[in-house]
Amino acid sequence: MGKPITFQWAINHGIAEEMRRDPTVFIVGEDVGKPGGPFGVTRGIIDEFGAERAVDTPISEGAIIGLCIGAAAAGLRPVAEIMFMNFITLCVEEFYNQASKMRWMFGAQVKVPMVVRAMTAGGYGAGPHHSSSLEGWFASMPGMKVVMPSTPVNAKGLMKAAIRDDNPILYVEPLASYRLKAEMPEGDFVTPIGKCEIVQDGSDITIVSVGRMLQESLKAVGTLAQDGIKAELIDLLTVNPLDMDTIYASVKKTHRLVIIHEAKETMGIGAEIAALVQDTVFDWLDAPVARVAAPFTHIAFQPKLEQHYLPDAGKLVAKVKKMMG
Amino acid sequence: MKISKEIKIDLFTRMVKVRTFEDETNKIFMAGKEMPGFLHLSQGEDAMAAGTCANLEINDAIYTTHRGHGCIIAKGADLKPMMAELFGRIAGCCKGRAGSMHFADVKTGCMGSNGVVGEGMRLAIGTAFAQKYNKTNNVTAVFFGEGATGTGSFHEAFNMAGTLKLPVIFVCSINLYAQMTHKSVHIAIENVADRAAGYGAPGVTFDGNDVEVVYEEVAKAVKHCRAGKGPYLVEGKTYRHYGHFIGDPCNYRPAGELEEWMKKDPVVLYEKKLLKEGVLDAKGVQAIKDECKKLVDESVEYARKSPQPDIEELYKDIFA
After folding, report:
1. In order along chain B (320 residues), what is the average pLDDT of each group of 10 residues?
2. ipTM above 0.90, yes or no
3. Residue A74: which of B95, B127, B319 has the nearest Cβ?
4. Considering A18, A30, A61, A216, which one is annotated as catalytic?
5. Pair A200, A231: CB distance under 8 Å
6. Element holding B155 (H helix, E strand)
7. Topology, domain A5-182
8. What class is the B5-306 domain?
């Protein structure tokens, strides 16, 4: 274990290590090269690997993702940055019609190994065009994988795993977690895609946390423990494909489930998990599956309204207490 | 530029192959029993496909449109898996999943038709990026019509190809209609080629029905791209004989327009020219037509013999 590093620096190290290991890996996007990324995540990469592998582009989100798809189909491994996740709306076509379908549509003639980084920025007053969490759209696309790191260690591990994966992957990084610090495991490591992590064992209720909600969930678990409620905390880590077996096993043990995510509740990841759980382990449930997520409206720049909109530890604690009766 | 006899025969053969395939496809589709889905035919634009692809090597890439059969045949794809794909059979080049609008033949550099107008351009810059990244000297040609120049894809892809100096040849076939609406509604200028200047690239306009002109102009574009000078736009004025889709009544065309363009049918014109020049005699022409017909007939037979995909195929290959 070395000196602790931040979440954003862990992403940087994950990318750089893979670029050292594999000459087909390159980064591409707006400001990723010389400026080192709009929030400094790709700082230094251009100095080590040169402008051929750290490619600054015009503001053309569709063309950035199109470039990734064409390059990936030709054998390269692009790692693109799309900046604030709202801007990904400008390239949903490329994700949905092209990247996610290409391998299947072409009868397995190609692989499309590419990673696209997009940032969620809830909690910063960044407003309606800079704060959305749209990962659910992408998780509903067959052929797309979606990963949501929650700590510096899995930020690095998931980045390395994503770069090595042969499929298109959306990598969702929360601005609010950039400053988290942790020591990295020694040597080369990956966090497996498609596996969630049981962060804390418990017996009374299962909390499935998505992305940066892990920090809120950890706080909530602490508060609940003071009231004698032993919550089992699962960090989802991968949204597609979902690791439902781990969730089913936990529900069979605790008999209660609540899912917390920053994205809207309506048509969300929590809804999908709830449906699968009631379909498969209904008989083990002692209470309806609950969700703590954003309401069905828009995220505001105004701090009071934004705070009301975003899920947090307090809302999770209140929900769990209600469920425990 | 002197075009050799071999190249002339090659250009003619590519066009006849395209035309024969498309005519047969039309017949089978219109019979209504064997080809599911939608089909868009490319008769009339044969010279753009043949003249462009005759300049390309197997490792060069093309992207094409929903009207893409001709380009893919001209690039050298095997007709059998292509035809089986149109039939929706498991022996199709995409296992019968893609059909006419979405298929690809990667081993011959055909990186896909596309059901979304203009989208090939954004993907093409990625393949060109890989060609440059790997220092291969290969190029990527992307076919589109004038209607696609109204998309963000055209601007984004061309601009990025310009800034990154990517070896992309933008091949615009002006066929006068984007779906069912005339060119004048789609572009505010006469020639798409004028737009190339905005991306720091050369742009040329020419008669897209004269296969030798197409060949010569694309040769310059390929040379430019292989030399690492960035993208290039070629624009051929041509015409779509069959309307937007098979069965399109084409009631948006003014009377007499099709008849005028049929006089400029690129395959007929070139046959006359080669006969006149003595490059081929009537027997030679017939031999090429017979050979192409044989290949197309064999492809139909191959397609008919192939089974439909099993239901399990729907769930395979979603992830690598």
Report:
1. 94 98 96 93 96 98 96 98 98 96 96 95 98 98 96 97 98 93 92 97 98 98 98 97 89 94 97 98 98 98 98 98
2. yes
3. B127
4. A61
5. yes
6. helix B152-163
7. Rossmann fold (3.40.50)
8. alpha beta
